[in-house]
Amino acid sequence: CFLDEGGKEEASLYSKEDVRKWAGEQMKLATECVSAFMGGYRDGRDDEVDKMLNEYFQELEGEEEKKEEEEGQKKDKEEKKEEVMPQKRKIVKRKRRTRI
Question: Is 27:17 a contact under the CB 8 Å cutoff?
């Protein structure tokens, strides 16, 4: 019995060639879908990594700035002590000289 195209579609009778063609189209569609998904995934991932790294480095920079400020304050205190200390030394030397 010979069926025309309409009869094949109604009876779901396809040749191997038709199935291969359909499967190939489905594979192409799946490949395009996965490619689009992965492109969006990579963009989102990269954005999140950038945000995390920016936050991390801002914290590090904040800590470094605090350390620099503390070191600067320590140096200022030491400089003030050095300014005061020579005066004390002079006074001590004068006292020693006067005692002798």
Answer: no
Task: Copy the structure tokens of residue 75.
Answer: 């140096």
Q: Can you give the pTM of this predicted structure?
A: 0.41
Max distance between CA atoms of the chain, in angstroms, equals 138
What whole-number distance in Å separates Cα of residue 78 and Cα of residue 85? Answer: 10
Helices (H), the chain: 5-11, 16-99
* Per-residue tokens: 83: 């300014």
Q: How far apart are CA 20 and CA 71, in angstroms?
A: 74
Q: Which tokens hold the place of 9?
A: 């579609």
Instruction: Look at residue 68 in the predicted model and tell me its pLDDT.
Output: 81
Residue type, 87: Q
